[in-house]
Specification:
By secondary structure, the chain is of the alpha/beta class. The chain is built from 11 helices and 13 strands. The protein binds UDP-4-deoxy-4-formamido-beta-L-arabinopyranose (WQD).
Length: 337
């Protein structure tokens, strides 16, 4: 499917921009649609600096059918859609669930209806390990039963996967749903990376902003969990590895044995505790981080990491970068800001 046009919704965002770079590197022609709600137009120039190619960008919103229809009218040869555009702040989703259901769920409905009108059948969907909820079954396999998600954000991902599965049963679409574990780090150029708006919810941006003196102190949420060092365990995956998996997912559509709906975990298969991440960050970057142990955060899962065999066996993809690469690139990115 190389040199084919790929529509990338939310392509100026954190994971989207890294995926656009990998698509260009492999000769695809990404077309970005982004509403700039949680991203910056300047990311286009940075992608151009990295790849020597400025991808086509359309400012628009996946919840607006007119925007999508117009794009499919202009580009009648789009071979697949990679759908990143969604809200993703767990805490905010608890405060404003309807904002999340309208944007994440209704946005996908609009996109699918427009794809059907345009005859575009292939979609790669940005899902999340959060669909597994508070499981004690790590390493989690894609086929474990999906419990109730821990937040409205997570529930939008479960609903979207169910919608995609149902729509695929009609033959209208073929779906690869990618369940991300914890995406962290930045491109080695330090030209693109995570740009959280306001106070970061996630661990790594909070660490780097504390190291940069933007935040006074990192609070580690809970040190009395039933884990080796008492802090929560997650499967952190380098955003560049994650981006490369999306290109592998596109190639899956060429396989004659592909089912119409497939799900893959995207993680490293390794779990690291919060304290291990902090200590790795300090060691790799030669600095001391100001942190304290505080109360547990509501909604946190004790531990979760991926069973990665399915993506390895079927997509031929495996994460290559380790925690040290993630911590080094995250700090380089922070210092570039
Ligand atoms: C990781 C660990 C915290 C901040 C969520 C979503 C997931 C994805 C990534 C969107 C936890 C601890 C954090 C801090 C801390 N989001 N922590 N102090 O909650 O695993 O996953 O974000 O796609 O879908 O569920 O990520 O980075 O918020 O937390 O101790 O200041 O770091 O308690 O154990 P999480 P996180």
């Amino acid at each position: 499917m190389r040199r084919e046009k790929i529509l990338v919704t939310g392509g100026l965002g954190y994971i989207g921009s890294h995926t656009v770079v990998e698509l260009i590197n492999l000769g695809y022609q990404p077309i970005i649609i982004d509403n700039l709600n949680n991203s910056y137009r300047s990311v286009l120039d940075r992608i151009a600096s990295i790849t020597n190619q400025k991808p086509e960008f359309v400012e628009g919103d996946v919840t607006n059918a007119a925007d999508i229809d117009a794009l499919f009218k202009t580009h009648t040869d789009i071979r697949a859609v990679i759908h990143f555009a969604a809200f993703k702040a767990v805490g905010e989703s608890v405060q404003q669930p309807l904002k999340y259901y309208r944007n994440n769920v209704a946005g996908l409905i609009t996109l699918l209806e427009c794809m059907a009108k345009a005859g575009v059948k292939n979609i790669v969907f940005s899902s999340s390990c959060t669909v597994y909820g508070d499981t004690d079954l790590s390493p989690v396999h894609e086929d474990i039963p999906i419990a109730r998600a821990a937040s409205p954000y997570g529930n939008t991902k479960i609903i979207c996967e169910d919608m995609l599965r149902d729509e695929s049963l009609t033959g209208a679409v073929r779906v690869v749903s990618l369940r991300y574990f914890n995406p962290v780090g930045a491109h080695e150029s330090a030209l693109i990376g995570e740009l959280p708006l306001g106070v970061p919810n996630n661990l790594i941006p909070y660490i780097t902003q504390t190291a940069a003196g933007i935040r006074e102190q990192l609070t580690i949420y809970g040190d009395n969990y039933p884990t080796p060092d008492g802090t929560c365990i997650r499967d952190y995956i380098h955003v560049v590895d994650l981006a490369k998996a999306h290109v592998k997912a596109l190639e899956r559509f060429n396989d004659s044995d592909m089912a119409d709906f497939e799900v893959f975990n995207l993680g490293t298969g390794n779990g690291n505790s919060v304290l291990e991440v902090v200590q790795c960050f300090e060691r790799v970057n030669g600095l001391k981080l100001n942190y304290r142990f505080g109360e547990r955060r509501a909604g946190d899962v004790v531990q979760i990491w991926a069973d990665t065999r399915k993506a390895e066996d079927i997509l031929g993809w495996k994460a290559e970068l380790g925690l040290e690469d993630m911590m080094r690139s995250a700090w380089n990115w922070q210092r570039s800001l």
